[in-house]
Design a protein that fits this description.
This protein is of the alpha+beta class. It has five domains: 1-31 and 367-509, Multidrug efflux transporter AcrB transmembrane domain (Multidrug efflux transporter AcrB transmembrane fold), CATH 1.20.1640.10; 42-134, Alpha-Beta Plaits (2-Layer Sandwich), CATH 3.30.70.1430; 187-226 and 233-277 and 768-855, 2-Layer Sandwich (Multidrug efflux transporter AcrB TolC docking domain, DN and DC subdomains), CATH 3.30.2090.10; 573-611 and 906-1098, Multidrug efflux transporter AcrB transmembrane domain (Multidrug efflux transporter AcrB transmembrane fold), CATH 1.20.1640; 615-643 and 669-767 and 858-905, Multidrug efflux transporter AcrB pore domain (Alpha-Beta Plaits, 2-Layer Sandwich). The strands form seven sheets. Strands 1, 2, 3, 4, 20, 21, 28, 29 and 30 form a nine-stranded antiparallel β-sheet that branches. Helix 12 (305-322) crosses helix 13, helix 15 crosses helix 18 (493-501) and helix 31 packs parallel to helix 34. The chain is elongated. The chain starts with a helix and ends in an 18-residue tail after the last helix.
Length: 1098
């Protein structure tokens, strides 16, 4: 009695098992998170601090270095980068291994930062050092402006911080909300150095007065405990002026000094108080050149992008509904929309695959009852797989859904084999249940072997580490889950249902109006699942073709049967010729394997294909020392270029900020495109639009501007392309200019190579600066304290954090700075006064001189060494793998001393994969071979089954080359899947041949009989699978490049594998078996004793 007998005899038990599988899957579906891809980026903890008034070098030495040195080596750290800029901003980014817990990472980094705090300047400690979970990619970007530019940035900033900033920050999953062009409100005390000096004061006196008089006053309690025994009431004492300075008037009335005559010197006598923002270093405009602010929302690494996106969109809609008339709120882009569209696209592909598979099954089986058996295997297997996704912590993403699309063509295979065998037994006169019981005894081994082979190929990927492993695992295990359920279904539900519903006699021909209705329904389903990708005309096509097909099923079946009969006759003759020429076939097989190796080495490699995500971004930079006003003018020219692009909806151009540090001479921009459904032409693709923009931007003469696509995978970097760290290992021996010159040499060679679209760096080693030379001898003679003098100069020329206060219930920082018109030139600075230890005011020019100098506005580090960040992307027709290889070769050819390099971001993960695909492929073949060896108790028979695997690979790689698709991660996953698919057909032939061999039939007759009998199920399963894969091959819309990569490999490889399994496996089987007999001896009849007239050469 076989395993299936009890299930065939107990249909209620069997249906309950299947219903439970579906039910558990249905329960799991709504609980699964939805994402574009699983989180494969390195967890990122970002440490940020501000040293007001410090330049990049001072910030590097005083803030960044102490932080880096303490954080370096924190458990689980992968690498560390940082940037220090001329505005005193220090940002240290700590990247961790994928396997770490980001909450623990944050705690560990926070502990290390605490150790560094005593080493930091007092001002930095006072303003605080933030340690946050972060990601370098912006999830959503919005532009807040006005219809005619009637509202300035200050008004918009107040509106955002009053009504929007804090609600957005509270959303679960939001890591950071950045307002480009705006900042938290603050009080600025602009003092006149000359007026201060005339009254015997310095900026230090102003700051001391603020700190002394800006404090909360506590009134205490009347009748508070312990109180007298007869105390009746207890109530607080309210101080009407609580001590905090909370308005411009409060600050203006701040008392600085009292003269001998009793006159009070107030702050308004020596300066001006303004209510502004924490920083004025960034300004933004929209594509119409109107003042605006840009809101960038960053998500936490562990959050769900769609959930965060939905919450942010609702909050922005609420803000827009209550905003004053004339205020505009425009979405620039939302990655959540792309994720939703790409997931919907895969779901449509899944639906279309199911429709096509059902059509193929019905055409082959020509019996709705027989078609129902394998058709029910699809929902049982696919829906049941969701329960496994939940159990393993997977999400509904492109990888898992693509796995289900491929599984659609696979899960029906076993059921087809069962229905074919049961139908064959019924034709021999058996009753349906008897036929089912009889065939399952024969099919159990083949079904089990096929399932084990298809699942075994994915065993190695389950143990592959890191981000690459996550990609392989989520895709491969989803297929494995579906196949496991399918195998159980084929051994239980399918034979039971076949025994119940298959008719004893041949069914009536499908005629009548009902079949036309069914045809129309199927046609409309086809139109529904293909309309988003190919247009609404597919509804009409499906309706017409479905109606015609339903009305002419009898004719279609007759034509198909006649054609298939001719194919069977042709195959029988061809098979005889192929076995006769088996040595020639063997030589062709060897040549094919050699070509496969060559194809693997010659096909361009990539990682994850770039997709049209509906937006782009870019950077711009002016000449050395450009002011923010000059940068704003250049931004206006960029706005004009963006505004003239017809496919562009919204844009934001931000001056003074960058993706890698900030300085007045640089900026960045974002732009959102029209929906993909409105951009069907090739010239309307994001790639074409970005190329067109760059052709116009390069004509701008005052600076450099580059438009760039987004990263293929969020979480690795803010921009697409590669990140190449050019690292100085000289320990400071190289000057900034020398480091820049060497990096520039590499950039020049790269741009001349033709392998790159554009290679560039924003590193500027020598932005104009003023060198202030301090004569310490003179300072000593004048009895001046060095630190106090420097603090005074820094406060007046830069700014100095003076404390905090409260306004409208919110914390507001206070800054002291010289009046704008008295810090325009170096002469203004030399004219400042500082106080000596004797209490005398001394002009700076008495102990300092100034001359022109230079300094980098931004300094980058990689693993604590200074570095130059070089960015770029592959040229048209080149893959990312070719670009990475090319720049590495160029670097090595230049033979730099004490210079190293490293890739960060997605390029680092791509390189870490290395030969992962070959390793996974090799292990997959090995595991399949071992499983088959155990199944057939032979180390030779599996070689026959796997003979077509290399040629299937060749077919897959050839199809990729024809379509100019790189060998990316999706294609590599497809190749792994193809191992099992290619072996499956060989199993169907070899399994029956082995059974006949055991019955005493010689190898030639056994394999010929097997191949001819298995032709129909092999073609049926292959064509059904190909129909399931076809939607991926012709995919269009969001995520189409990924779908096409996978679909092309599987489709092309399976076409070749099917043809070759029918043409190569039989002759190879004869060669191997005859050789086995001659080497080891056998009691089986030899080919010489066969009834066939085929020649006997081995």
């Amino acid at each position: 009695m076989s395993f299936s007998d009890n299930f065939i005899k107990r249909p209620v038990l069997t249906t309950v098992c299947s219903i439970l599988i579906v039910l558990v899957g249905v329960i799991a579906i709504p609980t699964l998170p939805i994402a574009n891809l699983p989180n494969i980026a390195n967890p990122l903890i970002q440490v940020s601090a501000v040293y007001g008034g410090a330049n990049a070098e001072v910030t590097e030495q005083a803030v960044t270095n102490p932080l880096e040195q303490q954080i370096n080596g924190v458990p689980g750290m992968s690498y560390i980068t940082s940037n220090s800029d001329m505005l005193g901003n220090s940002t240290v980014s700590v990247y961790f291994d994928q396997t770490t817990d980001i909450d623990i990472d944050q705690v560990n980094v926070q502990n290390r930062v605490s150790l560094a705090m005593p080493q930091l300047p007092e001002q930095v400690s006072a303003t605080g050092v933030s340690v946050e979970q972060s990601t370098p990619s912006i999830l959503l970007a919005y532009e807040v402006g006005s219809t005619e530019g009637q509202f300035d940035a200050g008004y918009l900033n107040g509106l955002i911080y009053d009504q929007l900033y804090y609600p957005l920050s509270r959303i679960n999953g939001v890591a950071t909300v950045t307002v480009y062009g705006g900042a938290n409100p603050a009080f600025w005390l602009f003092v006149d150095p000359d007026k201060l000096a005339a009254n015997g004061l310095t900026s230090e006196d102003v700051m001391s007065a603020v700190q002394a008089q800006n404090s909360i006053a506590v009134g205490g309690l009347v009748g508070g405990p312990p109180a007298a025994g007869n105390q009746a009431y207890t109530y607080p004492i309210l101080v009407e002026n609580n001590g905090n300075l909370t308005s411009i008037d409060d600050f203006n009335n701040l008392i600085l000094n009292r003269s001998e005559t009793g006159n009070l010197l107030k702050l308004s006598d020596v300066g001006e108080v303004r209510y502004g923002t924490n920083t004025y270093s960034v300004q933004a405009i929209d594509k119409n050149n109107h003042p605006s602010l840009t809101i960038g929302v960053f998500q936490t690494p562990s959050s769900n992008a769609l959930d965060v996106s939905d919450a942010v969109v609702k909050q922005m809609a609420q803000f827009a509904s209550t905003a004053p008339t004339g205020v505009t709120v425009n979405q620039i882009y939302d990655i959540g929309e792309f994720i939703e569209a790409s997931v919907d696209g895969v779901i449509d592909a899944l639906g279309l695959a199911i429709v096509l598979v059902l059509i193929i099954l019905f055409v082959f089986l020509q019996n709705w009852r027989a078609t129902l058996v394998p058709s029910l295997a699809i929902p049982i297997s696919l829906v049941g797989a969701f329960a496994f996704l939940k159990a393993f912590g997977f999400s509904i993403n492109q990888l898992t859904l693509l796995g289900l699309v491929l599984a659609t063509g696979l899960v029906v295979d076993d059921a087809i084999v069962v229905i074919e065998a049961v139908s064959s037994n019924i034709e021999k006169g058996m009753k349906p249940r008897e036929a089912a019981l009889e065939c399952m005894g024969e099919l159990f081994g083949a079904l089990l072997a096929t399932a084990l082979v298809l699942m075994a190929v994915f065993v190695p990927v389950a143990f592959y580490p890191g981000g690459i492993g996550i990609i392989y695992q989520q895709f491969a295990l989803t297929i494995a889950f579906s196949i496991a359920i399918s195998a159980f279904n084929a051994l239980t539900f399918s034979p039971m249902l076949s025994g119940l519903i298959l008719p004893k006699e041949k069914p009536n021909e499908p005629r009548g109006f009902s079949w036309i209705v069914i045809g129309v329904i199927v046609g409309l389903a086809f139109g529904h699942f293909s309309a988003d990708s190919f247009g609404s005309w597919t509804y009409i096509l499906g309706l017409v073709v479905g109606a015609l097909a339903g009305a002419n099923l009898v004719v279609i079946f007759r034509v198909f049967n006649a054609g298939f009969a001719r194919l069977q006759a042709f195959y029988a003759k061809l098979l005889a010729l192929l076995i006769k020429a088996r040595l020639l076939i063997l030589a062709g097989l060897a040549a094919g394997i050699a070509l496969t190796v060559f194809a693997f080495s010659s096909l361009p490699t990539a990682f994850i294909p770039d997709e049209d995500q509906g937006y782009g971004l870019g950077i711009y930079q002016l000449q050395n020392g450009a002011s923010l006003n000059e940068t704003k003018e250049f931004a206006s020219a960029i706005a004009k270029v963006l505004g003239e692009e017809p496919e562009l909806e919204n844009a934001a151009i931000i001056s003074g900020s960058g993706f890698n540090g900030s300085s007045p001479d640089q900026g960045l921009f974002f732009f959102g495109l029209k929906p993909l459904s409105e951009r069907k032409k090739a010239s309307q693709s994001a790639e074409a639009i970005i190329q067109s923009l760059n052709e116009k931007l390069v004509e701008l003469s005052d600076g450099m501007a580059v438009a760039i696509g987004p990263p293929a995978v969020p979480g690795f970097s803010p921009q697409g392309g590669f990140y190449f760290q050019f690292n100085d290992l000289s320990n400071g021996a190289y000057t900034f200019n020398q480091l820049s010159d060497m990096a520039g040499e590499l950039i020049k060679e790269a741009n001349a190579s033709g392998d790159f679209q554009k290679v560039y760096s924003q590193f500027n080693p020598s932005s104009p600066a003023v060198g202030l030379s301090i004569n310490r001898d003179l300072m000593g003679a004048l009895n001046i304290d060095y630190q106090e003098a420097m603090d005074t100069i820094a406060a007046l020329s830069g700014s100095n954090y003076t404390g905090l206060t409260y306004e409208a219930g919110e914390v507001r920082n206070i800054y002291t700075q010289g009046a704008p018109d008295q810090r325009e030139t170096i002469e203004d600075v030399l004219g400042y006064y500082v106080r000596s230890r004797d209490g005398e005011l001394v002009q700076v020019s008495q102990f300092a001189t100034a001359d022109l100098s230079s300094a980098p506005p931004t300094i980058n580090h990689y693993n604590l060494s200074r570095s130059v960040l070089i960015q770029g992307g592959p040229a048209a027709g080149k893959s990312s793998g070719q670009a990475l290889s090319s720049i590495q070769k160029l670097f090595q050819s230049l033979n730099f001393n004490n210079i190293d390099y490293a890739f960060t971001g997605l390029a680092a993960l791509q390189l870490s994969a290395g030969s992962a695909s070959l390793l996974v492929f090799g292990l997959g073949v090995l595991i399949v071979y071992l499983v088959l060896s155990a199944q057939y108790e032979s180390y030779v028979t599996p070689v026959i089954i796997l003979a077509t695997v290399p040629l299937a690979m060749l077919g897959a790689l050839t199809f990729l080359a024809i379509r100019s698709i790189d060998l990316n991660i999706y294609a590599q996953v497809g190749l792994v899947t193809l191992i099992g698919l290619a072996a499956k057909n060989g199993i169907l032939i070899v399994e029956v041949a082995e059974q006949k061999l055991k019955q005493g039939i010689n190898a030639t007759d056994a394999v010929v009989a097997s191949a001819e009998s298995r032709l129909r199920p092999i073609l049926m399963t292959a064509i059904a699978a190909l129909a399931g894969f076809l939607p991926l091959v012709v995919a269009n819309g969001a995520g189409a490049n990924s779908q096409q990569s996978l679909g092309t490999v599987i489709f092309g490889g399976l076409v070749v594998a099917t043809v070759l399994s029918l043409g190569v496996v039989p002759p190879f089987y004869v060669v191997v078996k005859n050789l086995e007999d001659r080497l080891f001896g056998s009691e089986r009849p030899t080919t010489d004793q066969a009834s066939t007239d085929l020649p006997t050469e081995a």
